[in-house]
Amino acid sequence: MPPPPPQWQPQQPPPAPGWQPPPPPGWASHQPPYGGPPVYGYPRPRDTNGFAIASLVCSLVGIILLVLGPVLGIVFGIVGLRQIPRLGQSGRGLAIAGITIGGIVLLFDVIGIIAAVATGSPGTGPGVSV
What we know:
Elements: H1 50-65, H2 68-87, H3 92-119
């Protein structure tokens, strides 16, 4: 008697290299089996450079403090502009505004001081009139 014909059985393709079947239920590990959990929300904003903020504040307060405020505003603005790309911070516009406003206020302060000296301040004349 001849042997019976072989039964047809579906063949499965071989697994891809590096592929592993999913872990059985209840399997615990120190790593999640399919990567980390999804990240939700917005990315953390970049920090603003402190020298850029100080530059703008000193330049604006320099309207009252005359020469000291604008000079500090210009110096802090330059320091901030040099630090921002190196540290990956934001605040470039604040530093530029601080330098610009500080320069304008310093210019007006110098013009005002020159005008006051040229015209003579009240009470500093050659004589005192009563």
